[in-house]
Specification:
The structure is a homodimer. By secondary structure, chain A is an alpha+beta fold. Helices cover 23% and strands 22% of the residues of chain A. Chain A has 2 domains: 199 residues, HIT family, subunit A (2-Layer Sandwich); 159 residues, HIT family, subunit A (2-Layer Sandwich). In chain A, strand 1 and strand 2 form a beta hairpin. The longest helix of chain A has 19 residues. The two termini of chain A are 30 Å apart. At the A-B interface, strand 4, strand 8, strand 9, helix 2 and helix 3 of A face strand 4, strand 8, strand 9, helix 2 and helix 3 of B.
C-alpha cells in the first residue's frame, strides 16, 4: 500500500491510497473554496451519559447532486471535484461539512464524566473523513475486486492509526452508510470515518460488558461469544479459516451479520496480515448476499467496532464488523419508533433464525 | 375517571375510560377471532446488555387500512372493529399482534444479567396495549380538549399501576408514535403501552447516572438538572406553576422538548393531582407548536419516562415526558445513520438554541 498526502484548496487533507508506487505527485486543487468555519460542539447528556454532536452549520449541506455534479468522482476538464486527481484507487479526505474538526483539537479537553458540570459542552474536536472506495461512480462496494478491498482495509487501518494518535481523539469509527434509506446524500460508493473526542455509548457499553465478564469468569467475553455462536451453529452464515460471519443471537435488525476474525485483536492496526488478506472474500460474499435479499438494492450500515484509542480495559475489546439493513422486505422498512429510539428496546420482526435461512439461500 | 373492563372475542382485555359513570356495560365483541398464538421471545445481547424482542409473527400484521376499515373506530352496523362499543372516550386494549404477552408471564423469569449464559433467551412476558385517545378518526392528540387529555393521563396512570403489579413486569412505557415517518400503521389517534419484562437500556442508563450523581453530590440528578435549565433559561419554551418545558441542553433530535413536573415523582401513579391537572395545558401547547413547525404534519415520538416497577434506586428517577421529531424541515428528515444506530452518537443539525427560537416563534 502506498499513500500520498496533499491539501485541498481550503486546507483540508486528502490522502491517496494506491497498490503501486508508480503514481505521480497529487495535482493541486484548482478550486477557489471558502474558508471553513467550524461551529460544532459536543454536549454531554447528564441524564444518560451520551455525548451529542451539535453541528448547526451542517443544515445547509448539499443533497444528492446528479452524477454530472458528483463531488466524489475524479476531477476532469470543466468539472472540479473534491478529488483534484484525474483518477484514483482509494482516496480519503476531510469532510467539508464535518461534525468534528481538528481545528479545535486542543481548545478544550473532555474530562472524565464524574467531574462534569450538568450543562457541559466542549469543542467538537476530532475529524470526519470521507473514504471513496472507487473512482467508478456507478459501482458498489459489493462489486469491488478482492485486492481493491484489501486496499480499502489498508486505508481504514492507516486512518485508525493516524487519527488515534491525534491529541484529543478517543475513538476511530470506520463505516459505510449505503442507500438513501440510510440518509446517504451521495450515490458514489463511499464510506466515512469519524474520529470522536469521546468514547461512544455503544463502545462504552461493550467495554463495560467485557469488563464484567472478565471479573465474573476471568475470560474474554468476545472469545467466548464467538465460540458459543460457532458451537451452536444455527446462525452461522459462513465460516472460513480466518473469519466467521453469523447472525447474532440477539440481532436488533431484520437482517444483521457480524464478522469476527478468529483471532481477536482490539483494532484494525493490530490485526495480522492473514486476517486482513482474508477479509475481502467473506465480506464481499456477505454484501453480495445482502444485495440479493430483495428486489431492490439493499440499504445497509456497515460498522467497524474498534477499541478506543486509550481506555481502561480496551485490550478486552474485539475488533469486528457489524453489517445490517433496516429493510424487512422488498416492500417494507423497519422504522424505528418509540420503543427503539426513546428506550433502546428493539424488536426484531424477522428473527435471527429466519434471517440466516434467507442469507444462506441467497449465497452462491 | 371511571373504568369498565371487558374481554374481546379472542380473550384480550379491553378497558373503557370515561369521565362519567353513566355509560352502560360494554357490549360483547361479535367477531369470530382466531386464537392468538404468541411466539415472541426476548433475547439478551451479551455484548451490550440490551434486551431485544424477537417477534417473528408480527411480520404479517396489517398496514394502513383505509378509514372505512379502521380497526380503532367504534364498531357500527356492518363494520366490527377492535372496539365493540358504538362510541367511547378513551379506550385501551391488548394489541392483537403483541411483541410481549401475559400468556407466558410465568414461563421464564429474567435473572440478573451477571448470571446469564451468553446465548440467553426468555419468554417475552409482559403486555402490549393500544390506547385510543379519541373515537374521532380524524382528530389528533393536539386537538383534544384539556379535560379529555386529563382522562388520557388517568388511563396512562391506571395502566402504569395495573401493569406494574403483574408478575414479571419490570417497567411500563406509555408513548405515542405519530405519523407514517415514525412507522405508524394506523392514522386513528392512538398511542401504545409496553409492559416490559426487563428494564430498558435507556432507563437503566438514566438510573445509573442518577445513582452516580447521588454518590458524588448527595443530591438528585433530575432536580439539579431541571434547576440548571430553569436558571440558564435559554432553552425554556414555557414554564407554568406546575410544569417546565425545555429543549434539553444535549438534544439528540432536530426539535426535542422535555416536560418535567416541578415536583419530582418516580412515575405517573405517584404524581399529585395538581400536576396531573396542569399537564394538559402545557402538553397541548407543545404539540400545537410542533404542528406549526413545518408545512406538513409533524411526525413525532412522545415518550413517558418512568421508573421501573421495582429497581434499586428507582426513587431517584423523575417521571417526565420526552417529545421529539425526526423532521428537520418541511423537506428533510433526520435519518439515523451509522454514527447513531451503530454507535449511539447522535449529531443534532439544528441545535437546541436554534430549535427553541423556532418553538417560541410558533407559540400562540
Amino acid at each position: 500500500m502506498h499513500r500520498r498526502s496533499a491539501r485541498l484548496a481550503d486546507g483540508r487533507e486528502i490522502i491517496y491510497f494506491d497498490r503501486t508506487s508508480e503514481r505521480e505527485r497529487p495535482p493541486a486543487d484548482q478550486r477557489d473554496l471558502p474558508t471553513r468555519t467550524a461551529v460544532s460542539r459536543v454536549r454531554y447528556d447528564a441524564t444518560t451519559g451520551d455525548w451529542v454532536m451539535v453541528a448547526g452549520h451542517r443544515q445547509t449541506r448539499n443533497f444528492a447532486p446528479g452524477a454530472d455534479d458528483c463531488p466524489l468522482c475524479p476531477s476532469r476538464e470543466g468539472h472540479l471535484t473534491e478529488i483534484p486527481a484525474a483518477d484514483y484507487e482509494v482516496v480519503v479526505f476531510e469532510n467539508r461539512f464535518p461534525a468534528l474538526t481538528t481545528d479545535e483539537l486542543v481548545a478544550d479537553s473532555i474530562t472524565p464524566q464524574s467531574g462534569l458540570p450538568l450543562l457541559h459542552e466542549a469543542a467538537a474536536a476530532g475529524r470526519c473523513e470521507v473514504v471513496c472506495f472507487s473512482s467508478d461512480h456507478d459501482t458498489t462496494f459489493a462489486e469491488l475486486k478482492a485486492d481493491h478491498v484489501r486496499l480499502v482495509v489498508d486505508a481504514w487501518t492507516d486512518r485508525t492509526r493516524v487519527l488515534s494518535a491525534l491529541a484529543g481523539v478517543a475513538q476511530v469509527f470506520c463505516f459505510e452508510n449505503r442507500g438513501a434509506e440510510m440518509g446517504v446524500s451521495q450515490p458514489h460508493p463511499h464510506g466515512q470515518i469519524y474520529a470522536f473526542p469521546f468514547v461512544t455509548t455503544r463502545t462504552s457499553r461493550m467495554l463495560n460488558q467485557a469488563r464484567a465478564y472478565r471479573n465474573a469468569h476471568d475470560r474474554n467475553l468476545f472469545d467466548d461469544l464467538l465460540d458459543a455462536e460457532i458451537a451452536d451453529g444455527r446462525r452461522v452464515v459462513r465460516a472460513t479459516d480466518e473469519w466467521v460471519a453469523f447472525v447474532p443471537f440477539a440481532a436488533r435488525w431484520p437482517y444483521e451479520v457480524h464478522l469476527y476474525p478468529r483471532h481477536r485483536s482490539r483494532d484494525l492496526t493490530r490485526m495480522d496480515e492473514a486476517h486482513r488478506d482474508a477479509f475481502a472474500a467473506i465480506y464481499l460474499d456477505m454484501l453480495q448476499r445482502f444485495e440479493r435479499l430483495f428486489d431492490i438494492p439493499t440499504p445497509y450500515v456497515s460498522a467497524w467496532h474498534q477499541a478506543p484509542a486509550a481506555s481502561a480495559g480496551a485490550d478486552e475489546f474485539a475488533v469486528h464488523l457489524e453489517l445490517f439493513t433496516n429493510r424487512r422486505s422488498s416492500e417494507r422498512m423497519k422504522v424505528l419508533g418509540g420503543t427503539e429510539v426513546a428506550m433502546g428496546a428493539f424488536s426484531n420482526d424477522v428473527g435471527p433464525e429466519q434471517a440466516v435461512l434467507r442469507l444462506r439461500e441467497v449465497g452462491d
